[in-house]
Amino acid sequence: MARKSYIPGDFELIVKRSATGLGLFAEGEIPKNSCIIEYTGVQISKEQEEKSRSKYLFEIHARKTIDGAPRWNTARYINHSCRPNCEPNIHKGRVFIHAKRKIKPGEELNYDYGTNYFKEYLKDICACPKCEEKRVAAKKDAAKQAARKRAAKKVARGAPASARRAKAS
Ligand SMILES: [Zn+2]
User: What confidence tier does 81 reach under pLDDT thresholds 50, 70, 90?
Assistant: First the structure.
């Protein structure tokens, strides 16, 4: 495989409304593995990091964190997905967002923010397809269990003793 480029390509991107506030969208097709954009920001100290309430912190390594909150960091508009089409890659102390697969015009860009961020902020609200599927499955499961409980109650109440014994064995 060709080595990854760390020079963002000249892709047309647009910030607009998405399912979860604003998002960053591709206006044209983006080939797989392309370097799309750099996640930029202000480098902050460990002390500042601990006090910071920014949701745009990106820890590059143990001694370097950037706060990507400034609006000129267009990459801050990329939302989280548990089944993303992009991924962040650290290269020489900087963060670049690459396409994990071919991205079609009009698609929203997203990447996985990582387990810690997910647990802290997104667990119950993530609207990505994977989480929606999980929620639907959980609801179905709960409904099934409730139905099973109702059925069990009916058997216990309505069935003759022999049937109850047969069920129990
Ligand atoms: Zn999700």
Answer: very high
Q: Give residue 87 CA to ligand 1 midpoint distance, Å.
A: 15
46 C-beta neighbours (distance < 10 Å), count: 11
| pTM for the whole structure | 0.80
160 pLDDT tier (thresholds 50, 70, 90): low
The domain ranges of the chain are 13-122, 129-168
Please give the distance, rounded to the nearest whole angstrom, from the Cα atom of residue 55 to the centre of ligand 1.
Answer: 17
How many angstroms is it from 116 CA to the middle of ligand 1? 13
81 Cα: distance to centroid of ligand 1 (angstroms)? 5
Q: Does domain 13-122 have CATH number 2.40.50.100?
A: no
